[in-house]
Specification:
This protein is 67% helix and 0% strand. The protein is mainly α.
Length: 142
């Protein structure tokens, strides 16, 4: 036990001596003189110049300018289209309120589906009964 303690203390002593012998870091360089204070207008101008140079020199990787040009064309074209009448707006509003996904076409399909479901025969209500299970087995066999 004493040998282990002596070995540990020797190791600590050697490492501390080695640390003490290492060279001290070089002195920090002298601080540069502080720049003159910048006014807010100068800061604003510098920021605008930076943004302008970045904006004008950068390549449009997102397609934002093409999108904005297309939107301008679409807006111009939509202004030429006649506005819907009061009756058209009312019909569209009613159709969207009842069938919000696709309006009148969806309403017609829903009516067809209702008719078909009324014509199909219904399953027996008590599916767990032995008679119902036999009827289902009989219907399932070819």
């Amino acid at each position: 036990m004493n040998k282990i303690v002596i070995a540990l203390l020797t190791g600590i002593f050697v490492s501390s001596v080695a640390l003490a012998q290492t060279t001290a870091p070089a002195a920090a360089p002298a601080a540069a003189p502080a720049p003159a204070p910048v006014t807010k207008t100068e800061q604003k101008k510098a920021k605008q110049d930076m943004v302008q140079s970045t904006t004008s020199a950068a390549v449009d990787t997102t397609g934002a300018s093409a999108t904005s040009k297309q939107q301008a064309k679409n807006t111009k074209a939509s202004k030429k289209v006649a506005k819907p009448t009061k009756q058209q707006r009312a019909a569209d509003t009613k159709a969207a309120a009842v069938y919000p996904q696709s309006g009148p076409a969806s309403a017609a399909q829903a009516a067809k589906n209702t008719e078909v479901s009324k014509d199909t025969p219904k399953q027996p209500a008590n599916l767990g009964t032995p008679a119902a299970e036999k009827a289902m087995e009989k219907a399932a066999k070819p």
